Amino acid sequence: MSIKEYRTASEVRGGLILVRDTPGVAFGDRVRISDGRGGTRDGQVIRASNEEVMILVFEGTDDLDLEAVWVRFLDEPVEIALSPEILGRELNGLGEPRDGRPPILSHIRRAVGGAAINPAARSYPREFIQTGISTIDGLNSLVRGQKLPIFSGSGLPHNRLAAQIVRQAKLKDEDSSFSIVFAAMGVSYADAKFFRDEFASSGVLRNVVMFVNLADDPPVERLTLPRTALTVAEYLAYDLDRHVLVVMTDMTYYAEALREVATAKGDVPARKGYPGYLYSDLAEIYERCGRIHERHGSITMMPVVSMPSDDITHPIPDLTGYITEGQIVLSRELHNQGIYPPVHISPSLSRLMKDGIGKDDTREDHPKVAAQLYALYARALETRNLASIIGADELSERDRRYLKFADDFDQRFVGQGEAEDRSIEATLNLAWELISAFPRDSLTRLSETELAKYYQGND
Amino acid sequence: MPMSERNNQGFVRIINGPIVTIDLPGIRSGEQVKIGELGLVGEVISLNGREATVQTYESTDGVRPGEPAEGLGWPLSVELGPGLLGGIFDGIQRPLEKIALQSGDYIRRGLALPGLDRERQWAFEPNPELEPGKPIGPGSVLGSVQETETILHKILVPPGLEGELTELAPAGDYEIEATIGHLRDRQGHSHRLKLFHRWPVRKPRPYRRRDDGISPLITGQRVIDSFFPQLKGGKGAVPGPFGAGKTVVQQQIARWSNADIVIYVGCGERGNELVDVLESFPQLEDPYTGRKLMEKTLLVANTSNMPVVAREASIYVGLTMAEYYRDMGYDVVMLADSTSRWAEALREVSGRLGQMPVEEGYPAYLSSRLAAVYERAGRVETYDAGPGSVTLIGAVSPPGGDFSEPVTSHTKDIIETFWALSKELADARHYPSIDWVTSFSAHVHAAAEWWHKEVDRRWEARRTQSLALLARDAELSRIVNLVGPEALSDAQRWQLEGAALIKEGVLQQSALDEVDTFCSPQKQFALLDLALSIYDKGMTLIELGVPVSHLQDLPQLAKARRCKSMYNSDQVASITALTRETEDAFEAIRLEYAKQHSDD
């Protein structure tokens, strides 16, 4: 089919253009729009009929003149060119250079929309990744092929934590590091710069592909950015056999862009104005991570989700939590006490931890130590609550022990330096040190053998 | 109008995501349609003059207006015959393992693969009671094939056919397409009978009559079996916020329940969790038969990134296969994880059609559709294979963990067993996080009959006593949180201790603990009885004046908490021995105390 060009734009609103009388245009195809003043924009067909086509304009529709607009249907899906040269580059949501260097040229081009992985082709993620952070490694372990988001709030150090994980993440007893795909959506200039400097100073820049859409860039581009980034991640993982860690920040801005466009399209809103398909849409992104049978590479994902007003039940963190395999939740309370990283372990969870830890992966006592720490901390938080009402002096000796444990745990186990890379052994040994403050008989989650081997208390 | 005389060729008019409008006069509502050059399959959901609205099961990227659309003449149907067990199918019953062989790691569009293997030979054994000339009807058993080591697959006359058997094939190896018999109906038409037949998924399969459930579905999970039991043929829901452990509860039921057949529908959930089932079930042993679990299991998978319309279909596809095995006289349990994703698929389609939303964007027909789905569960008398049942257990994923949202609240009105998962319990890593205050079961009395006959006559009394103690615990904990534990009497503190013993020693049960992941009804009762015996004996001592601190640190208490992981289901005698041992210890304390007091 020849490439068609039309001057029949009939309506412009909120990132969308409607074009009349355009027979045979394919749903999902790429569109180039000339603004009549020498500028071009990119778009995608999101509703098609012979009478009228609706186009999503990635650069937004500000400043367009209906009379002057030319629309060209390129007769191809939205694609990105892929080659190993892509490592070390900084691109926008459409895969175009942002670093002033020439565009990527390659005969390998893939549609960014992706396809669903056949569940029968997946293999179950079970290789423990050591991040060097005790609250993650010890209590919410990450494994290769997992998607584990960081739930955060404005002003919390999620970026520093993400950067530390990028720096430190490695397989136990292995040096091979990850290739990083970094996708920034709607972040501030300062945050983007922080990551760029961070990658440069830790010397991983050659191994990073950055996709950047800043807070003042067009929001519609955020809809395609994570898809483009993941297409690159899939190429690195399954064509080039690399282990890829995808860091996406901030999914909240992505979802807000989706809402903006959905509203313009007139979609029926479900919760808080977000469209009913927000879940499916987020799943299309998150589910692209994983492991595939007989493929060497893998995709592990750490999206950052900032919870509006620290509300974990807000649709974005809520739906994310239903798709991802757990979550790391940051706490403002811990942050205000100066504890870094302020990981609140109670609502944090890793669903894939069970098969990545234990005798052959980390250490045989790991599963039960984690369970015991959680149980003690839950009781300790209750006690702390009680103490704030009746005063610590009123507590029994048993309860005062829990109170002290809560403080020790926050300061020593949760808290660690930004440059501190704790091995899993160090994390588990520290856990035993804290656990041993309790009498042996009260540690019902641990087995007799484990207690005999590691318990350091004197009774 | 017979299909052949009807025009079944039309063209595509409008593409709006998965919703495609076609121009094809004469097509029927519910009919399957093949769209475009790729041959994407969809289903007519509404008609308007010449035009029909079609929901497609695959992504419509690249489809153009003007491309052909073809009516296929039948509604969405599944193939029912030997070869289903052990398989994994997508939301419209395409075999995912075969798709992987044909299209690689990603699912290519427009693949039309039948659900059942055409090549495989099955050893057919005709029903010895049948011979030509005998009357047969819907559900009549023509014979059987051994589908897996433990499951005998009965070959049934499809519902809707009735008449006289004119021919029945001898024992031998047949492919599923082979004719194994002929039936002549009242009009004198002859029908070929095969090892399989098709059935439209949105139409419940018929049966002779509906029966009440009588025996509990044993899941090996204490909080379920001993506290909120489910009957075979019942319907239940597991609602819970993310991270509360819905999937683990569902998987535990799939692993350990005493159903003959397990159908696991992963509806809009995580790919990696389905793989967990796929990889672990072929290794795991069925505790009842000693065979591999996969031999009685089949999976329907529509992960969250697979097309949303097929997600809506997946629940019906699963249910129809469940009813088919029920019609052979089996007890089937179907797990749907999650019905919320199914409801959201309804919402998405209804939104694209511009239908008026009622609550949170859901269409007005949400509650009636939900009710119709759950009503397909039940225990029935089949036509020719005795009693059979379908137990349906749906996970519900309420947004923000809010149980008042439409899907949870409508579900709650329909189901009989409600296992409410609690975020607070999950955060404290109390698993399964089934909340004993908000959960309920309408089956306690029916289950009690079974427990009293099979396990122990005190079951219902012990159950009631523990729930009362747990309720008392909740009350007292509120007081403690206000004024501290010192305000409580010794008896009240012992009540807290007793409740803690039930929580830790009975209710908590780790799916990862090799010894305790499955717990037989006998072991369940022994543990419950152990905890309550300690509580009862202790209370007698406290009433005599023994201080509570004297009892709190007894080593038997710690032992009772650990007991569940120390003895497996074959070592119930060790648990009852521990019960006697603690009773003796308490008796010794009583004697010592009485002696001290008589000395005074």
From TrEMBL, chain A:
<dbReference type="GO" id="GO:0046933">
    <property type="term" value="F:proton-transporting ATP synthase activity, rotational mechanism"/>
</dbReference>
<dbReference type="InterPro" id="IPR020003">
    <property type="entry name" value="ATPase_a/bsu_AS"/>
</dbReference>
<keyword id="KW-0406">Ion transport</keyword>
<dbReference type="InterPro" id="IPR000194">
    <property type="entry name" value="ATPase_F1/V1/A1_a/bsu_nucl-bd"/>
</dbReference>
<protein>
    <recommendedName>
        <fullName>V-type ATP synthase beta chain</fullName>
    </recommendedName>
</protein>
<keyword id="KW-0066">ATP synthesis</keyword>
<keyword id="KW-0375">Hydrogen ion transport</keyword>
<dbReference type="GO" id="GO:0005524">
    <property type="term" value="F:ATP binding"/>
</dbReference>
<comment type="similarity">
    <text>Belongs to the ATPase alpha/beta chains family.</text>
</comment>
<feature type="domain" description="ATPase F1/V1/A1 complex alpha/beta subunit nucleotide-binding">
    <location>
        <begin position="132"/>
        <end position="350"/>
    </location>
</feature>
<dbReference type="Pfam" id="PF22919">
    <property type="entry name" value="ATP-synt_VA_C"/>
</dbReference>
<dbReference type="InterPro" id="IPR027417">
    <property type="entry name" value="P-loop_NTPase"/>
</dbReference>
<comment type="function">
    <text>Produces ATP from ADP in the presence of a proton gradient across the membrane. The V-type beta chain is a regulatory subunit.</text>
</comment>
<feature type="domain" description="ATP synthase A/B type C-terminal">
    <location>
        <begin position="355"/>
        <end position="455"/>
    </location>
</feature>
<dbReference type="GO" id="GO:0042777">
    <property type="term" value="P:proton motive force-driven plasma membrane ATP synthesis"/>
</dbReference>
<dbReference type="InterPro" id="IPR055190">
    <property type="entry name" value="ATP-synt_VA_C"/>
</dbReference>
<keyword id="KW-0813">Transport</keyword>
<dbReference type="Pfam" id="PF00006">
    <property type="entry name" value="ATP-synt_ab"/>
</dbReference>
<dbReference type="InterPro" id="IPR022879">
    <property type="entry name" value="V-ATPase_su_B/beta"/>
</dbReference>
